[in-house]
Amino acid sequence: MPSDIPVRIVAWSDARAAAGAIREAVFVAEQGVPAEIELDEWDERSEHALACEDGGRVVGTGRLLPDGHIGRMAVLRERRGRGVGAAVLAALIDRARERGMRRVVLNAQSRAVPFYARFGFAVSGDEFIEAGIPHVEMARKL
Q1: Cβ contact 61:18 at 8 Å
Q2: What are phi and psi of 32, to 5 degrees?
């Protein structure tokens, strides 16, 4: 699913300000995730995708953990439905492939399963609650 939305893959040191602000807005303010669990020890060890609109404003983010887990996918509310999430996910999948990973896994919010399914992810576990939100594990071979 090609996109004309530019996405950069960067270290946490370069992503922290923009990605942290987006995750705060989406997960903490909108979805009620406790702020103290939103940022974690995996941020420093992960690669982060930053989707930028014209002018360089970061409007979406996600991360790839060293073990092939994709997570913390978030797009600013006013930019949803415009391909930003698709661009971020595609960039993270491409990065996993570049790193020689054979499989990627993510914990999808249950309501987002159709989005991830469009990218070839399949549900691989039962529904569970994470940060008070229903999720399912999904996986995709590369």
Answers
A1: yes
A2: 75, 20
Instruction: Quote the tokens at residue 136.
Output: 């399912």
Q: Closest Cα to residue 104, out of 91, 90, 87, 121? A: 121
- Kind plus residue range of the DSSP H or E element containing 55: none
51 neighbors 58 (Cβ within 8 angstroms) = yes
Residue 126 has pLDDT above 70, yes or no: yes
What amino acid occupies position 128?
F
Q: Give the Cβ contact number of residue 37 at 10 Å.
A: 11
Task: State the greatest distance between any 2 C-alpha atoms of the chain, in Å, as a whole number.
Answer: 42
SS3 87: helix
Distance of CA 64 to the CA centre of its chain: 8
Instruction: Convert the pLDDT of each residue in 41-55 to its tens digit.
Output: 999 999 999 999 877
Q: What b/e string do you get for 93-115 counting C-beta neighbours within 10 Å, with b at 16 or more?
A: bebbeeeebeebbbebbeeebee
